[in-house]
Structures are given as C-alpha cells and as structure tokens.
Amino acid sequence: MYTRCQGCHTVHPVNAALLARGRGQYRCGRCQKLANALDALFDEWPSAGDPAMSQGEPPVLGGTIALEKADASELSPEEAALLAETPNLSEPSASKGPWLRLTWITLGLILLLGSIYAAGTYFGQIHFDRAMVEESLVKIGVKDAAPEPPFRDTSSIELVSREMLAHPSRPRVLLLNATIVNRAPQAQPYPEIQVRLFNLDNEVIGERRYRPTDYLTSTSAMRDGMTPDAYLRFSLEMLDPGERAVGFELEFH
C-alpha cells in the first residue's frame, strides 16, 4: 500500500503495522506535514492524477504487509514516517539467497563457455574449444557425460598359429587357418582382421578385411568379447591370385 502526502505529494510505502501504530497519522519526511495516511491511500504506486480510495473502501492487502511486526515495538507517528520512507519493507528470504546466487553463477558460466566456443570457432580452434566446453558443461551438470568407449588393445592380441592352404573343395580359393589369443588383462571386442598376399617383390597382390561376423559362429561370443587368455581358432577364405602369391600377413584392427 502507498499513501501520498497532501502537502508535497511525496508517495510513501506503508503497511498495516505502521498504520496501526500511528493510528493512521504520520509525518512526511520531506515537508514534515502531519497527515492521515488513510485520506490518501492507494493499492498501487499512484500517478499524479490517480484519485485516492473513497472512504469506506477496504484496501487490498498484498504479500508485503508485515502484520507480524504489529507486536514488535511501540512506534510513534514520527518513527512510522521514517520507516515509511524505506523503499522495501519486506525482508529477503534467507533460504532463496544461495539458490539464486547459484543460478546466476551457472548462467554466467554458460555464457562464458559459449563465448569461448564462439571464439574458438572463429579462430580455427574449434576442436580444442569444443572438448573444453563439453567437459565444463559436464562438470556443472548441464550436460551428461558421454559413455566411455569399450576397452580395446589390438597390440595385445597374439597370433599363435597360421597356415595358408588351397581350399580342398573350392578351386581358386585359399583357406587360411589361424589361432589368436587375447593377452590383455581384461576382455575386449573381437578385432577386424586384415589379410594381405604378397609376391616375390613383396608387393601386395591380394587383400581382404574380415569383420568378426565373418569368422565367428556365435552371436553371444561376439557380444561377450575376447576373454583374457582364451584361444580362438578360425578359418577364412579368399580368392587365390595364383602362383604369384608367395607370402601373407595378418593385421588386427
């Protein structure tokens, strides 16, 4: 609620506690005129031409009315007038303070990271800045962390045995029999196997890449991966380039 001094037209915020203590009387802090606040009472901040409430019209009491202050102390009309000049009589909630501060900090970090990302894009550093921005967003809880990729170490896959033979029933087809084992301390996905054929000049004259589905017969084995120290024997077929092929090699990917 607000009251307007009839002498200098200064608007003062008031509440029920102040009106009760001064019995409606107050002294204007600007012109020192003693007046009755009820003679010029408004629900909202009045403009120059707004009329006051008519006599007998009850004011609408909003959430800022501090009725609990009515028993706090005895105030004189002069003290009530001084309190009435305070812009905001309501006290901020202590419980909302930390959350409001945290919200502003989070918004500030998001704006800062967005600026860094835009600058990185402009100056050709998008890959570095993108990783940094995503890591920071994960730390403040704005973005979920990406799932970690499965463990994979093809250097720990050992080729135990291998042999290349002419296919017993299919002409111009070679049959590769091999055994591999996972020497890593934990399971890992089955590798893709690159097979290359060489001639006498060590030139590649035949090449093929096999996926796990090409040499595994069990889908459950592919799902579980290569367990440590477990041997796997498999056979692969590829076209026979003829007598030019004198050697071969396997590479795991």
Strand order of the largest sheet: 2-1-5
Strand residue content: 15-25%
Share in helix? 25-40%
Second CATH tier, the architecture of the largest domain: Sandwich
User: Which shape, going by the Cα principal axes?
Assistant: rod-shaped
Mean pLDDT: 78
Question: In CATH, what is the class of the largest domain?
Answer: Mainly Beta
Order of helices and strands: EEHEEEHHHEEEEHHEE
Total helices: the number is: 6
- The secondary-structure class comes to alpha+beta
- What gyration radius follows from the Cα positions, in whole Å? 42 Å
Stated plainly, the CATH topology of the largest domain is called Immunoglobulin-like
Number of domains: 3
DSSP E strands, number: 11
In angstroms, what separates the terminal alpha carbons? Answer: 77 Å
Q: How many strands, which pairing sense, and closed or not: the largest β-sheet? A: 3 strands, antiparallel
Instruction: Name the poorly predicted regions.
Output: 57-74, 86-92
Question: Can you walk through the features of this model?
Answer:
This protein is α+β, with helices and mostly antiparallel strands and 253 residues long. It folds into three domains: 2-84, no CATH class; 96-139; 154-252, Sandwich (Immunoglobulin-like), CATH 2.60.40. The protein contains six helices and eleven strands. It has helices spanning 16-21, 77-84, 96-122, 126-139, 212-215, 219-224; strands spanning 2-4, 11-13, 25-27, 34-36, 41-42, 157-166, 173-182, 193-198, 204-210, 231-239, 247-252. Strands 2-1-5 form a three-stranded antiparallel sheet, with no helix packed on it. A three-stranded antiparallel sheet has the order 6-7-10, with no helix packed on it. It has a three-stranded antiparallel sheet with strand order 9-8-11. A hairpin with a 6-residue loop joins strand 3 (25-27) and strand 4 (34-36). Helix 3 packs antiparallel against helix 4 (126-139). The radius of gyration is 42 Å and the shape is rod-shaped.
